[in-house]
Write a structure and sequence with these properties.
Elements lengths: L1 H17 L7 E5 L13 E11 L2 E10 L4 E8 L6 E2 L1 E3 L5 E8 L2 E7 L6 E8 L5 E9 L5 E10 L1
Antiparallel strand pairs: 1-2, 1-11, 2-3, 3-4, 4-6, 5-7, 7-8, 8-9, 9-10, 10-11
Length: 156
């Protein structure tokens, strides 16, 4: 009996370590004042990103609008395994993404446009107080020129 309990606790401890917390989960509102938009891209005027655990992945929903009136409306289901998955919907420069979780508060993404020039590497970090999420990115824009920027979100 004692051995069975010890094995059970060991399995639970390993599972807890392997499937750590994800502090990016929740609803996040884009902070226009603190974010930076790359040159040549219509600035985002409003955006809410919702990240929720679903089965063995995370469902990411983004809804918002840009200054030029174009809508952002996407849904993606990702696993933190680094494998590319499609982004469904419209309003973003990329149509595929792969994600890896490096800690409870940090993710790394690769975003690409199939058949296009767009590619970016994104490092997302949640602040220690859990109130702010910052995604810094760099790569190549749809025009083939370098792009850099940062998207800052406030927890809702």
């Amino acid at each position: 009996m004692k051995r069975a309990l010890t094995m059970t606790f060991a399995v639970v401890a390993i599972a807890a370590t392997a499937f750590g917390a994800d502090n990016t989960l929740g609803s996040w509102k884009y902070n226009t004042a603190q974010s930076t938009t790359p040159t040549g891209v219509s600035p985002i005027t409003s955006l809410t990103v919702t990240r929720e655990a679903t089965g063995d992945g995370v469902k990411v929903t983004a809804k918002g609008e840009r200054k030029d009136g174009s809508k952002i409306d996407t849904t993606t289901i990702v696993k933190y395994d680094g494998k590319e998955v499609p982004v469904k919907g419209s309003g973003l420069a990329w149509d595929t993404v792969s994600v890896k979780q490096s800690s409870d508060n940090a993710l790394t993404e690769e975003r690409t446009r199939k058949g296009g020039k767009y590619h970016s590497t994104v490092k997302t970090v949640v602040s220690s107080d859990g109130k702010t999420m910052t995604a810094t990115f760099e790569g190549t824009g749809t025009d083939g020129k370098p792009l850099t920027g940062a998207s800052v979100f406030d927890k809702q």
